[in-house]
Design brief:
This protein has about 220 residues and is mostly helical. It has a single domain (about 30-220), classed as Alpha-lytic protease prodomain-like (Up-down Bundle). The chain has seven helices and no strands. The relative contact order is 0.15.
Amino acid sequence: MSGGGGNVHGDRDHDGHGHGHGHGLIDPSIVRSRAGVRAVSTSLGVLLATTAVQALVYAASGSVALLADLIHNGGDALTAVPLGIAFFLRSERGERLGGLGVVLAVVASGLVALGAAIDHLVHRPHLSHLWVLAAAGGVGFVGNEAAAFVRLRAGRRLASPALVADGLHARIDGLVSLGVVVSAGIVSAGLPVADPVVGLVITLVILRIALQSWRTIRDGHAH
């Protein structure tokens, strides 16, 4: 609202440090908070939808490579929650803690995926619906790439190392999802052992992502 009248949101203090919206001015921390919440909310929705689709396909195919991928995608989606809360509260310390939560979630999902891969390597369950399995891997790639784009763009604009780390995490996850497509192709060619082997490779990639994410949070650089 123009003019010198009052504003329902309150006026700025005389020293210019108030948090009001008078004369069209908005506190930069509020702008950053809203942008951060919007970014993590969007990526959360994308990854939850991706995980839901992959879970349906896993129920039909039983692929451990896909299981490793969907577990990781689900954990990745949930890392948006603490980051979103930190942005909402405008807490830099909260962002850092949220970033550490990202690292812990990656490590946990990697350990679960490792257990599943070893189990399938020993018991060799029969896989089915391979073309659907390959499609699910493609869905994982597209979903993660979309989430990575949102997180990286916002993280660099807002100078948030935690959000950048989460974006890099999602981008590499997209490449991991392509491993599911590779697994389906090799299994269809008559090599079923490829599925747990690919699952193990995905696990190694997950743990590498954890190390990279931790370094980004530790160094505090949003590049």
